[in-house]
What we know:
Layout: E1 20-26, H1 42-57, H2 62-67, E2 70-81, E3 90-100, E4 104-113, E5 116-129, H3 139-145
Antiparallel strand pairs: 1-3, 2-5, 3-4, 4-5
Amino acid sequence: MPLPPSPPSSPSPDAPSHLTSRYSLDVRFCETDLMGVVHHGSYVAYLEAGRIDWLKRRGLSYDEVVRRGIHLAVAEMRIKYRQPARFGDRLVVETTCSEIHRVTARFTYRIFRDETRICDGDVLLACLSSSLVLTRLPDDLARILASPDPTAAG
Length: 154
């Protein structure tokens, strides 16, 4: 039986560029493995750091969301590794809110070292109530997810 098609490996071509933010980080030694490259599990933290920065640039802290009794839980995650990154590399996590639905939001990611694309990622977040029941994204949160990065040049 053939496998279902993979989700897009880069930000959705339909997502406006204003929904993309960029976050820079330096690879720390503790994020590398015995081969001297970034451990595959470290990329999960890079995606999360990009997403948290994406929200912060739009004036929203994740703590604020939780205080409102809302959780954005990871329902799906996919990472495609393209090139190795190493200790000391400066990486840029490009984060895009590519889809917003009634109870979910999808973020797509591309991680670069200079002009070299290191990996692509895709995370589907499900909106949960404080009792961990699937719930509709609040209207104001959906508006923030559709808002531009006010810190972007242009």
